[in-house]
Amino acid sequence: MNALLHGRLTGLLALGAVIAVLPAFLPNNFYLDIAILAGFNAVVCVGLNLLIGYAGQISLGHAGFFGIGAYASGVLVGSYGWPPVLALLAGAVFVGLLAFLVAKPILRLKGHYLAMATLGIGIIVSIVLRTESGLTGGPDGMMVEPFRIFGVELYGEKVWYWVVGVFLLGVVWLSLNLIDSPMGRALRAVHGSEVAAEVVGVDTARFKVLVFVLSAVFASVAGSLFAHYTGLITPAKADFFKSIELVTMVVFGGMASTFGAVVGAVVLTLLPQALTVFQDYQQIVLGGILMATMVFMPKGLLPTLAALVPARRRA
């Protein structure tokens, strides 16, 4: 256990070091922008990994929570003059309550029934955002006011890079602590066997709802900050394809691996940019890479690579 905790601490320090030194190797704001987008995706994937990787509960609608958070900030700040911090918190509370209400019935389902139910949630959110044009701007989206805190406006890629970097570190730290807590052990028990977990006294329904709400709140806060950073949000950020993209990042990086979720989000955010040299064949090459990874690295990218590193001999 001490070795495991040491490894997680080392990983957290390594992530912090990468975030700290990375700007020195990024030549311009375009690359900073890509790094920021990767950070937002990583935050959502860390939360989604708690749900999928540790609790074993699939969700194909998490982009809906990301979109609600984004539009909550956009509408409350732009149309009603709320302070951005208060709008962000209000969006997170609303998403948390919504996730709690829908989690109670749908998490009783299993397998493809659960997948279809979560997919339905995402589709409903996407439809509402597209049709309520008077409030959300419809398919064209809406402009979002800059993020201000204590009268100071967060502006520019360099500032936002550090905001997102610190946010990601905080989410990863929280996730690692949760995994080592009684709740984390309960989630792993639920993933292994719900029946066995209930036999030993684990309230499986309660823990599944809690992790679903927590992962939804992570997505909401990321969506709010994303909206303020980009200054423009559209319903595309809450649709089915975005949800599939997020799940793919988690699976690609390695389920039940917090750092794997970060790696998966970063790689699949950067990879499409690197594959632009293939022009019309970009999506075909990307699909081929994903299939090859799943065939030869079924546990995900990071766990497979970590298994190749010789373990230290125990003292």
Automatic annotation (TrEMBL):
Q: How does it sit in the membrane?
A: Multi-pass membrane protein
Q: Which domain of life is it from?
A: Bacteria
Query: In terms of one coarse class, where is the protein primarily found?
Result: membrane
Q: Where in the cell is it found?
A: Cell membrane
Any single Gene Ontology cellular-component annotation: plasma membrane
InterPro entries for this protein: ABC_transp_permease, LivM-like
Q: Which residues cross the membrane?
A: 30-52, 59-79, 85-103, 112-129, 159-179, 209-229, 249-272, 284-309
Q: Care to name a GO molecular-function term for this sequence? A: branched-chain amino acid transmembrane transporter activity
- Key words, A-Z: Cell membrane, Membrane, Transmembrane, Transmembrane helix
In Swiss-Prot or TrEMBL terms, this protein is called Branched-chain amino acid ABC transporter, permease component (LivM-like)
Protein's organism: Azospirillum lipoferum (strain 4B)
